Structure of Threonine aldolase:
Amino acid sequence: MAEETGDDAASVRRRRLARRKAAHRAARRVLARPGHMATIGDRLALLHGTAPRLYDLDEPVDVYGAGVVTALEERVAGLLGKEAAAFFPTGTMAQQVALRCWAGRTGNPAVALHALAHPEVHERHAFSTVSGLRTVRVTSEPRPPTADEVRGLEEPFGALMLELPLREAGFVLPSWEELREVVGAARERDAVVHFDGARLWETTTHFGRPLDEIADLADSVYVSFYKSLDGFGGAALAGPRALVEEAKVWRHRYGGQVFQQFPTALSALAGLENELPRLPEYVAHARVVAAALQEGFEAAGLPWARVHPRRPHTHEFQVWLPYDVDVLTEAAVRQGEETGTLLFADTWDRGGPHVSVTEIGVRAAGLEWTADDVRAAVADFAGFLREEVARREAAEDEDAP
């Protein structure tokens, strides 16, 4: 077989994504219907129906951050128990600005973080390339960092950045006691603490604490408006008023002083109104789904199937299966196309030799699923999976000399 070129591989990925999205839109039953999978019309209709009860639409539109943007900032600061908050177009920008401001105050540009933290995995070395910061990896283990690891770092650092939850490790969280100990260890090192709280909204069930008590452990907090709240985009940085005022200056310098942002700000207010109160319900049901998935895998005889964490910390978690990405992707999409039930709606990624991983999120649509529904969907998926494995093995036999 000829080796695929970069363009060929990119075309395959685009076709696969388009097919998966089409299956998701057509499916009668999914565990989540995130906004980014919807149409433009659907998103505008949702905002049109919700916005009038969230903000006075007869007010002038925002201009460089006034009006509805200010209202959103004040709402977030209040929810997180911080003096002030600033709206940012992206979390990448918000966190670079926050840690740059802290570096100026501490005199140390080193940021201690997990090797699996978002800036290390997904931001193309932005901290060092753009913001003059230097990262120090606390650990690379697929779990939250420990207080002893923070104490044991061999060089000083100005800030400790904690991603809550740690997505790449399975949306995992420390216990409340462990989190307090890690924060305390950073204070012992004369460092400030910044929470990468893109999904902090989801953590209250696990910690058994309200948002403001969780955020109070950190000097500054970043939160996303689309990852948990299903907004159009955007983020906020919350913390001491002086830090936030400086952050707004750097926001302008980084190109984040957007002329008008009212659609995104209104969608964020809608997320705070509609999705935030439901997140504990999603977390509780995600644990039902996770347990039923594991039971379904065992009943279907799928080897080495793993749900991680076994009891999810948030409404999102991972599933690992010992098959190649292409096999799992085809089986998942065929199930959606042929049965109207799309059990695995997200991408499958390579987790090792012949091992792949996908993420599961449970939202409002998933609340309709019973444990029996999940187990039945696993049984159907296992059937499609075996068919795909058999088809590929037959094709390999035909190609063999």
In short: The domain at 6-30+278-399 is CATH 3.90.1150.10 (Aspartate Aminotransferase, domain 1). Residues 371-399 form the longest helix (29 residues). The two ends are 13 Å apart (CA to CA). The chain has a mean pLDDT of 95.
